[in-house]
Each structure stands twice: as C-alpha cells, then as structure tokens.
Amino acid sequence: MGTTGLTDFRRLSNRYILLRPGQTSYDAAERIDSNPINKLDVARGLTERGRAAVGEAARELARRGVEDPIVWYDSGARAAQTAEIVGEVLLVPRTRLVPEYSFLSARGLGVLDRGNASLVIPLVHEADALDSAYAPDEADDGTPSDSIDDVFVRVRQAVSKIETQYSGETVILVGDSDVLSTIAAAACGTDLRLHSRCASLLNADGRRGAIYP
C-alpha cells in the first residue's frame, strides 16, 4: 500500500500530535476489545490509572507549549473520556473537541477479539511485518477484521478531512494504537508493514496515555 499524501509533513498545513486513550478496564485485564458495537459502553471507559496518565500527558503537552488545540477523537467512550480530560487540562472550548465516528475507530481484529492482548498483539504485528494486507479471520459476531492497509485508507481520509477544514492549527488525534502508529508510519515515510515500531514510540513510557510528539 502506498502512502502518498502523508509522507511529507511539508504538505500538511496543520501540526499533529498523536495521543492514545488512557487505560481501560479491558486494557487492565489485557483483553482485546475491537468490536465497534461496544465502543460507546461507558463501562469500558478509563480506569483511575488511565485518567491519571491522560492528565499527566495533557500537562506535558502544556509544558511543551501546546495551546488552544483542536482535539479530534474517536467517538468511543475511552477516546471521548480522554479528549474530555485533555480539554479540561488545556482549557479547550467544547467547539474544538471534535468527535470522529468512523475514520479513527480501533482496528478490528475479527476472531482475535476478546483474546489476551499481550499474546495476540505481538503475533498480529509479526504478520503485519510480512504483509500489510494481513487481516485476522472474520468473526461470527460481526467484529470487523482489518488489515493495516484498511486502517491506512481510513486514517488518510481522516487527515484529508482535517486538512480541508483547518489550516495552521495544532490538532491532537486521539485513537487506538494501530490507528496512530499507521498515521505515524505514513507521515514519516516508514513502510506500513513496520508500523508497530512507531507504536513502540507511542508507548515509550509504558503508559496508555503516552504521547507521540
């Protein structure tokens, strides 16, 4: 899959900061939860640890001089709660907290959904490294099964939409790790098959609230 349109930051009119949602109850249990039918369930929202990590990440952004950003976030509960905390810390007006209903949705992992994340995710990324078109088998319950190529199509649409609507803004993108690592890989000109190397940067401090500058 080519990455035309995201490979040169000089072609983007906005500054982008990538931020993962804070830890959720499913994250704490190391369970995968990629079925979009569940993403609005507030019971799957942030843990206290997750809220604390997001707050610290937002304060770090403030220390780095981030002011009056646009926060563009996946509409699921965990990302929405993350965006709310960022908005509170950075004093972002409600009009600049923008939900996105499909392009930033978590990567669907099909039959691997509900599996043990610490075991499954490394295997998925190994498969990605061989073929960006790799996708897990489809599930009987309707959980989508996405390849990194599929994710890239969505994130390219998201960035294109933002670039059309804004210019010269700082935009914080809040979304799932594979979504953000795909954006980072494409923007830096890295082969999409190696996107998980960008994911390791996103989680460099070991917290769900880690930022990618």
Give a verbal description of the structure.
By secondary structure, this protein is an alpha/beta fold. It has helices spanning 25-28, 48-63, 77-90, 117-130, 148-165, 177-187, 195-202, and strands at residues 15-19, 70-74, 97-100, 170-174, 211-212. α3 links the parallel β2 and β3. α2 packs across α3 (77-90), α5 (148-165) crosses α6 (177-187) and α6 packs across α7. The two termini are 25 Å apart.
Strand arrangement in the largest pleated sheet: 3-2-4-1-5
Question: Could you state the oligomeric state of the chains shown?
Answer: single chain
The termini sit apart by: 25 Å
Strand content: 5-15%
The H-and-E topology, N to C, reads as: EHHEHEHHEHHE
Uncertain parts: 1-5, 203-213
Number of helical segments with 4 or more residues: 7
Rg over alpha carbons: 16 Å
Mean of pLDDT: 87
Q: Roughly how much helix do the residues carry, as a percent range?
A: 25-40%
Main sheet characteristics: 5 strands, mixed
Structural class: alpha/beta
**Number of distinct beta strands:** 5
| Shape annotation | globular
